Amino acid sequence: MEALVCKKLGDPTALKSSISEADNDSPIILSKTQPIPQLTTPTSVRVRVKATSLNYANYLQILGKYQEKPPLPFIPGSDYSGIVDAVGPGVSLLKVGDRVCSFATLGSFAEFLVAEQDELFKVPDGCDLVAAGALPVAFGTSHVALVHRAQLTSGQVLLVLGAAGGVGLSAVQIGKVCGAVVIAVARGDEKVQFLKSLGVDHVVDSSKESVISSVKDFLKARKLKGVDVLYDPVGGKLTKESMKLLNWGAQILVIGFASGEVPLIPANIALVKNWTVHGLYWGSYRIHRPVVLEDSIRELLSWVAKGWITICISHTYSLSEASLAFAAIKDRKAIGKVMIAIDNERSVKSKL
Known about the structure:
Blueprint: E1 3-6, E2 28-31, E3 44-54, H1 56-63, E4 79-87, E5 99-103, E6 112-116, E7 121-122, H2 129-132, H3 136-149, E8 157-160, H4 166-177, E9 181-186, H5 189-197, E10 202-205, H6 211-221, E11 227-232, H7 237-242, E12 246-254, H8 267-272, E13 276-279, H9 285-288, H10 290-306, E14 313-317, H11 322-330, E15 337-341
Parallel strand pairs: 8-9, 8-11, 9-10, 11-12, 12-13, 14-15
Antiparallel strand pairs: 1-2, 3-4, 3-6, 3-15, 4-5, 5-7
Helix pairs in contact: 3-4, 3-10
Domain Enoyl reductase (ER): 22-340
Protein name: Enoyl reductase (ER) domain-containing protein
GO molecular function, one term: zinc ion binding
């Protein structure tokens, strides 16, 4: 089968063209001879991958800057969607041909992947299968953060930084489902207009205006005291500025550091203002709180089926165009998710 293999650590965007097995300079190669994974237990399921999502964590992992550092070589990738290709003799929840989505620690940048049956989620009728491959990590992160951790309620004020990215857009939509007043921060006219089309209550273009002044003016006009929940996948200077907008008793959700700078949250101010700081490493829920994670994804899939949330796909690439896909994330060109769609029809057929 074909698979994207990380053979050494480095910047996967360095190669600005299609990749192959012969690329010696790139940290990633497109292998066409990877063995198709076999069923490992009676309850395991093999999925023919249809689409897999790129997350900033995948980019950091290839750079060698992520908190989890797998041994080389490895196949990157986390959330994905596809069709059940084979099932073990003990599988009772799924059958060959079922549409599913899930996430893995590694390995989704490939044509086939094996998982346990209870790790897979059926994709509802009416939900696009490629879009379903973008749901678990981005929307899962925001759902656990906002619904489970912050327990966001109707009427609260939610401030989302980096709102046009994959997790940012998911946080904006989940905030609206919860009935919150949503303020979004993004850069550039195209991103601002897109966020407005989603019904965001107030959008700040941080490339043109002061976040503090713009948000304060909005809060004053709406007779609101301040921000109740800060959703922060960005870090850096923007975090420091945003803390000036927080209410007494506010909650800070630390999602990531896309700016490359880890912010300092002053403990003395957190004490005086009774802030709660939530660190959220979504992937660790599979180990420590798997039921929370599973219930979260099931609820999100039901929201997709009801039309309450929309999975926004900005760019779609093939496996051979992975360098371009990572560049779209690195250069912040994406509005929503960047996907790799895998054309299984033209290549291999698996064998039991």
